[in-house]
Amino acid sequence: MGQNVLVIGQGGREHAIAWKLRQSPRVNKLFVAPGNGGTRNIADNIPINTTDIVGLIKFVQKNKVDFTVVGPEDPLDLGIVNAFQERGLRIFGPTCQAAKIETSKVFSKQLMQKVGIQTAPFQVFQDYHSALMYIREQNAPMVVKVSGPALGKGACVCKTTEAAEKALKEFMLYRVFGEAGNEVVIEEFVDGQEISVHAFCDGKTFCLLPPAQDHKPIGNNDVGPNTGGMGIIAPVPWVTSETMEVIAKQVVCPALQELAKGGNPFSGILYPGCKGTNSEFKVLEFNARFGDPETQVYMRLLKTDLFTILEACVDGKLASTKIEWHPGFAACVVVASGGYPDQYKKGLPITGLADAESLPGVVVFHAGTTFDGELKTSGGRVLGVTGMGDTLQEALDRAYEAVRLIKFEGMYYRRDIGVKALAMMQQK
Prior knowledge:
By secondary structure, this protein is α+β, with helices and mostly antiparallel strands. The chain has 14 helices and 23 strands.
């Protein structure tokens, strides 16, 4: 008998999760709340907000949903997992106490400091003027972060003191991220390349996913403000298995042990974002859910039934679950609205998707789309165009070939996804 499954969220991450779950012979009815213009093709979109925990519980109980998967961090922060568990409802994700490793940058940095996880030196401030004085005493570049959840956007890499002052003012005075800016972290800038590391966790054990590399700045060559992510590759060819073992032993393991020691065992996806080289790296931050756009490439590469893995995490049976991956590489190029991450238009018709998805190795995941008889834009990051190939270059070529077939007014995308990784491969 198949399971009825609900995915909570509306972005590219949730579309990718739903796409992979739809392939499972163990999944019967599939719902996405609230979903988007792409999820409507593989699941029933349910018009319930991701933070409406009461409404989501009522829907699950009324529609006999057997299993729920949480996509974004906001409902985790609000305690959706706690609320579901209290009612005997099965749900994938950490409790709000365990999710603090993402939802409080201060908690996360202090945890890393306590257990000896390598991270950038930092200071914490609740007072704007104290933080401003500290910034003026430091040498740029530096990083200014809001402590609370900000949908992956509450960090500013500041190359000058003036830029750091501007970010601080936006976070603490103008409150561009609301209450998340009540407390800020100011830390040293870490040089090197970013590595996204994900781990399936069941509260007792964990299993690493392949390393991925996000491209966060809006512009080519990593210029401009940070975004939620403009493209991703996986696996990262220059990251060695030895480095992944070190990350497992020196990052993931001590973090999980400390959470469990505090009475908050972590079940779900733990995602440390690292930066550096194979020989030396530091953890920039932790996330308590699948990354976006990391999920889009992970779901393309994953060979094992996703539902089986998620269920094993909830049931504490991950150690006995074999997880397999397709060979080769996956790449995702994010197609965004012109003006993102600042002001942008919505409601623009999108064409060319059928042609793009007819190409070999290509799947397009929807992020900011809606359907009212016609597919239209509804967000900053609109589509995640993924390609798979035997080589990284082949995966990138397929993704970019598909991107060029897609059209909407003002569409924007980076043209250098994966270039740094390819260059490092050529140097070896």
